[in-house]
User: Fold this.
Amino acid sequence: MRLLDGKEVSAKIKEDIKKEAAEFAAKTGRKPHLVAILVGNDGGSETYVASKMRNCELVGFDSTNIRYDENITEEELIAKIKEINKDDKIDGLIVQLPLPKHIDPEKVTEAIDYRKDVDGFHPINLGRMQRNLPCFIPATPYGIMLMLQHYGIGTAGKHAVVVGRSNIVGSPMSILLARNSNPGNCTVTLTHSRTQNLKEEVLRGDIVVAAIGKKNFITADMVKEGAIVIDVGINREVSTSTKSGYKLYGDVDFENVSKKASWITPVPGGVGLMTIVGLLKNTLEAAKGTIY
Ligand code: GUN
Assistant:
């Protein structure tokens, strides 16, 4: 078994981004600028946004975190998004999900100018991704593709099984793996909560992407010998043995699945770090105006 090491790959790619950000700043007199809007005080979201902001600073981007009380109305939030859309000094805008129940995430996503949509959630970016056109690719699937590319893992002709069909991970991942691109060219099965005989489906996977959000859901009996296993799960549990007060678990039973896998991502230290890289790369592209 070999580890798909998010620490190593993310550090290397972040060095490249840092150099490009410095070149951008030298040329334009300003840094790439990411704005993240956070509504309410969901513990997970707070951690993710803080990490995104910290990583922006690390690679030489400007970053702004706009925070709203959970009582903000949908209209107020969308008015702010429209203001940011017009601001030439802001390159990328993300609205951290989940949002409070009274705010429709689809309306919010569509309010963001697709040229600033560095999350890649806007339907224009989704459609362009499917067609292999210039677009922002959602950060987690993008990070996973960069990781496969870094290790030179050939995916063409392989059977990929994606578990979970979320808009953020599973659904775009299935499109990317099926695309005529490298990595890509897989035969893809997208499974979800209504899939019958899930174990048999997952057992067919030369590549398995686990994006369910349930601790240790993928067990060794579900995985083919020699499979490439990508664990997207970040399941937080309260723990007294860690400094943060939380311990993270993946969607994959790493201890046992790693004995069968040819390659596997750890949690933490795997996909989570690559998600940040995907977001930073998108923000740099937004600043450079590559996505028109
Ligand atoms: N919530 C969980 N993942 C994400 C993400 O990648 N972007 C945003 N905006 N919210 C999320």
Q: What stands out?
A: The pocket of guanine is lined by residues 94-97, 119, 139, 168 (CB under 6 Å). The mean pLDDT is 97.
